[in-house]
Amino acid sequence: MKIIVTGSLGNISKPLAEMLIAQGNAVTVIASDPQKKASIENLGATPAIGSISDINFLTNTFNGVEAVYAMIPLSFTEPDLGGYMHRMAQNYVQALQQAGTKRIVLLSGWAADLVKGENVEHLFDGLNSSITIMRPGSFYTNFYQSIDLIKGKGFIGKFLTLRYSGLWALLTGKTGLLMGNYGGEDRIVFVSPNDIAAAVAEELLLLPKEKTIRYVGSEEMTCNEAAKIIGSAVGKPWLKWVLLSDKEMLQGLKMAKLPEKLAETLVEMQAIMHSGKTLENFHRNKPKMGKVKLTDFAKEFAVAYHKK
């Protein structure tokens, strides 16, 4: 089967490509960085170097393939996160429509349908394709963003998936306290990217007649329970997950010079997680949990923690 994997060699895309190749599929990996070409080829996949912002590139790459795993990387440099997400989703839709792709698996998030104006899942409804929406919980790999914080003061405060180092530095500062308006005793579904990849690999080989939504998780617990597991792995079993109010979070983001609309969106996303609505949706769908538990990931985290 000819399959496109977007997301370069990211936390989900790399293990997904490896799984699909092991199954005997012909896999093409889309990456915007030309330096990833050799690494993609070493996996046994075909590299396609280009941007999802380029509709012609996407259309040409999608031509002749049977299935596409589509993801939109978050951008914390975009003043209007919702506008950016909609533009990228529309690029996908136009390219997929022109290419006539039969099977599409779209990466979303477990809060996507609850954040006003940010959900792009519906944009794919007009396609004459078999579509599955993946809604994973909070990634284990987000903990890597808190290494400096844990080393400094022994606190955790999650801030989604930050890859923008300048913002990260501004938020953590010298206090060792990262701002987050969910945490403490909030119950969260955490998920391993490997379990997401396994679920996506399963879905890509199916062809449901109607659009389906699949929630993905590995383990459910409170944020403080997760903090204890991570803390114990690095010799800090007293580690706590600090919870701030929405107002405190918004003020902190504005102090970090984040565009106001983007700051408000990020606060809303975390507030929804704090409210428990995401967990209610997850339970309502009754998904089977994945294999990778937080104690497994904590061992990998500890290696990275002590290297830094």
UniProtKB/TrEMBL annotation:
SUPFAM superfamilies for this protein: NAD(P)-binding Rossmann-fold domains
Domain NAD(P)-binding: 7-114
InterPro entries: Ergot_Alk_Oxidoreductase, NAD(P)-bd_dom, NAD(P)-bd_dom_sf
Protein's name according to its UniProt entry: NAD-dependent dehydratase
